[in-house]
Amino acid sequence: MRMPDRPIHRGSLGTRKEIWGKSMEHFATEKWIDFVNQAVDTNEKQLMERHLQQGCKRCRKTVSLWQKVRQSAASEANYQPPEHAVRLARAAFAEAGLAGQRKGAGSRIKLLFDSFLQPAFEGARSAGAGTRQMLYRADPFQIDIQVEAAAGRNRIVVTGQLLNLSNPGILDQGTKIALSNMRGKVVNAMTNQFGEFSGEIENSGDLQMTFANPSSRPIVISLRDALGSLSGND
Predict the structure, then answer these.
(1) Taking the CB of residue 210, how many other CB atoms lie within 10 A of it?
(2) What is the H or E stretch that residue 214 is in?
(3) What does residue 147 show for φ and ψ, rounded to 5 degrees?
């Protein structure tokens, strides 16, 4: 014989379910959040602790979840990102804000060569433009950059070399470089003993390169439509 369903009663503290003449009170999630944050009064805290001691798995699970959230938030507040990462991020945002105000002649960064701006010889325009060569001057540095599409993957490979023109005999080893696709993906690289660097990142169409050298201001180079349509440029 099927027993009739018992009604569900809602109280100010949560939900009370009556089953076969027995009752069990479940406190609302908001109350458990206050409990974890120690924001409930003494009497209510005692009731909630007694409820947990009675073995309510549902409420124990809720408390455990919000205790983890609280611990995570506490550890996040104490987290300090590496200094070089902060410097790169600040430089990228600062340079992006100034980009619209700059004029070509007054810019610290000068484009000396761009293969996409050079007229292609006859027959080359239909062969594809999967590689781009660029040369920049940002005193006291000269930066040689090559951007190319990774074969069979939606990624681009960036290689290059950083030269210090103020002291040609010394190559800039250990310069930190952040490659960003300007869609939330960032890859870090570093120049070797020859001033060379290399990195690979997901292709969003756009590319931003930030060079952080301890001896000078960071250099930020942004490329919209970095490889064109990959089908040639007229």
Answers:
(1) 23
(2) none
(3) -120, 130
CB 210 within 8 A of CB 85: no
Contacts of 84 (CB under 8 A, 6+ apart): 176, 212
Q: Percent of the chain beyond pLDDT 70?
A: 65
Q: How far is CA 15 from CA 8, 26, 28, 42, 59, in A?
A: 8, 5, 7, 21, 11
Residue type, 49: E
pLDDT on residue 199: 95
Q: C-alpha distances in angstroms, 169 versus 151, 165, 214?
A: 36, 9, 18
CA distance 163 to 161: 7
> Which amino acid is located at 134 in the chain?
M
- E strand spans, 72-122: 110-114
In the prediction, which pLDDT does 6 show?
45
Alpha carbon distance 12, 16 (integer Å): 10
Structure tokens at 172: 């800039």
In the chain, the percentage of residues whose pLDDT exceeds 90 is 26
What pLDDT is attached to residue 89? 63
Give me the CATH code for the 83-223 domain, please: 2.60.40.10
Residues of the chain with CATH 2.60.40.10: 83-223
| DSSP summary character for residue 171 | B
Query: Which pLDDT belongs to residue 80?
Result: 67
